[in-house]
Amino acid sequence: MAENAVSDLKSLPLAALHAALGARMVPFAGYAMPIQYNGEFGGIIAEHLWTRRHAGLFDVSHMGQLLVDGDGAAAWLETLAPGDFLGLMPHRVRYSLLLADDGGVLDDLMVTNTGRSLYLVVNGATKAGDIAHMQARLPAGLSLHHMADHALLALQGPDAVAVMSRFDLVAETADQPAFADLKFMTGARYHWNGVLLGITRSGYTGEDGYEISVPAAHAQALAAALLAHAEVKPIGLGARDSLRLEAGLPLYGHDLDPGITPVEADLSFAISKRRKTEGGFPGADRILDQLFNGAARKRVGLAIEGRMPAREGATVWVGDRQVGVLTSGGFAPSLNVPIAMAYVAASHAEDGTALEIDVRGKRIAAKVVPMPFKQKNYVREGVKP
Amino acid sequence: MSRLFTQDHEWIDVDGDVATVGITDYAQGQLGDVVFVELPDGGRTVSKGGEAAVVESVKAASDVYAPVSGTVTESNPALTDDPSLVNSAPEAEGWFFKLTLSDASELDGLMDRAAYDAFVAGL
Description:
The complex is a heterodimer.
Chain A: H1 15-20, E1 23-28, E2 31-37, H2 44-53, E3 55-59, E4 64-69, H3 73-77, E5 93-99, E6 105-113, E7 118-122, H4 127-136, E8 143-146, E9 150-156, H5 160-165, E10 170-171, E11 187-192, E12 195-200, E13 209-215, H6 216-227, E14 232-234, H7 237-246, H8 273-278, H9 284-293, E15 297-304, E16 315-318, E17 321-332, E18 337-345, E19 354-359, E20 362-369
Parallel strand pairs in A: 3-14
Antiparallel strand pairs in A: 1-2, 3-9, 4-7, 4-8, 5-6, 6-7, 9-13, 10-11, 11-12, 12-13, 15-18, 15-20, 16-17, 16-19, 17-18, 19-20
Chain B: E1 4-5, E2 10-15, E3 18-23, H1 25-31, E4 34-38, E5 45-46, E6 51-57, E7 61-65, E8 70-75, H2 78-81, H3 85-88, E9 97-101, H4 113-121
Antiparallel strand pairs in B: 1-2, 2-3, 3-9, 4-6, 5-8, 6-7, 8-9
């Protein structure tokens, strides 16, 4: 069981709603968070499958919402992360990585150009460190604001669009896209019942959907309005983890940490084309060397033979030689098999490579497979179905 | 003889010198969806409080301890095909293994149903 009593933890704006919904609360990132819900539709497998088939409502208010304002905000962020933020058009969202000076990953984050500010969403467990890191490097003329008075909800799944379309959402200003025009990885601000919501069409489950920033005082009303639709059920962190694992998405603190570079993490797509040429981000020499000459190890997906799950920390072997270690592992409810992510030596990272995993002294057969394990269901702009 | 319980949420039914072991309804509720159970092979000796099986939920692996010492005679083949029996029938079809007791006096420290229910209510 967890070491910290839930009563010692900070609570989030939706704590009362979680209690009313029969959530089992656990410590996560210093907060009491719902791991799963009780009842007919509750439990990690049921919640996972509901999200893949309908729409799941996630409370991710532990995550840090930050605003960077001032002239030169995009150029400044390019000194901390390898994305092309100068080229990030208004209302576009980009996945990026906050990098240490040696190129290690301090955090992964979403960056939205709101047209006036850069809006960042960072991980809950790392947000205090991220804020300190950014504040220490913030030049005169730029401001960094932590939106601690806002909750963050995610509505994920194939029915998310239909549900949100029933809400009366009016763009904050005429130059912002109408809600119906939001495609994946875009976002804007909308008035709903007199409340200003920041909505991006994004998420971390491999499904289409939205993340919704809402003033904490209105979070309960918004969550209740979403849950009033038959397609929407509350989903806990347990299913969030199994959903993102199936989607091949790394979880910070497990699959990413300061000892890992973006290339090793197989996140080279987050190094924008212009930045690959120009560099100028932390650890650029090391990262670009790995990008062009290869890294010694790589994050890969593993398909596991049989039914026994292998967990984070399990070692990966070829004969008597250890070639890697699992950083995430569990059961994939949509695939009905165990799956894992591991860092393995580049010499054993090719798709189809046969490996063995040590689970409690037993060797189980595994194979390197492409990720995502489960095909993503994003609706991208300009991509014909 | 009636069912006895441990503080680690195993149950044990004793019939002569043969006992059947499983985990309680409370335990399965705490674990959540069970996706795999690693069971001891017949002939394996287990000691009271020692690891005897592993139950895997979606999120994590948890040890199941032997309520008493003995020698495993068989494990439940139904759990290999359908691990979710641990969730749906933890104190019936979802039993884990049977063993022959090596020291029946080890039963003395276990709880009866009323004591176990009171123990769970205090958690």
